């Protein structure tokens, strides 16, 4: 399983990075909408939309939202803020689980959350990519998530003792979280220095984004546990579904986009 996981990652990571740096913005937006649509399809399944036509309608609504915000960039900031607020609320579902199971079991809250999550993540990708040094900022966000994930895996295996959220994801430990945080901090700190964008406040922001990445993973784990499935899909060998691979990134992207907008490094109104 680990070998398959590594092979898939070695194929996907360079392909994604190449697309980020080489594609024109419109092609980039189209390609990453396809990824958002695949993630939305898996969200729909986790919400209990088992029929193909239901998931098709769900993805079509996401397409309408993406098209509207591409045509009218004034919709981007509200969409990002909506996604950001959702990710502030998501930790409550994680820390109160399993008491919150009935809410997830209803289905429609998951469907609504999934729509907002996929839309806001796509908005963030487009906004960040359109900014100066946007491609490198996207690489930065991925290094943060990959560093936290890989660091947590190896630190957890070596030092893991105290369970992080045993009711949600029994394999995760606090030692893994701290090991992943150190790896992500080192990678992000180094790239900020290379980009000449480092300021002391970034240390706090990196910490907050790492926390969001952890809760993004745990949030999806809650959804899968309620639905009784191990993976959100089977598209990626060794990784499960698209959602399994990008759950942490979905939580990080809207907030990174809002941060870059707030400090003047990205501007929604000037997208198109």
Structure commentary:
The chain is mostly helical. The chain has one domain. The chain has 10 helices and 2 strands; from the N terminus they run H-H-H-H-H-H-H-E-E-H-H-H. The chain has a two-stranded antiparallel sheet. Helix 6 crosses helix 7 and helix 7 runs antiparallel to helix 8. The longest helix is centred in the C-terminal third of the chain and has 27 residues. It is globular and about 45 Å long. The termini are far apart.
The SSE order reads HHHHHHHEEHHH
Helix content: over 70%
Give the end-to-end Cα distance, rounded to a whole number of Å.
Answer: 44 Å
Tell me, what's the shape?
A: globular
Which structural class fits the helix and strand makeup? mainly alpha
Rg (CA only): 18 Å
SS elements, strand count: 2
Total individual domains = 1
Main beta-sheet annotation:
2 strands, antiparallel
Let me know the average pLDDT.
91
Please tally the helical runs, counting DSSP H or I stretches of 4 or more residues.
10
What features would you highlight for this structure?
272 residues; two-stranded antiparallel ribbon; mainly alpha; 2 strands
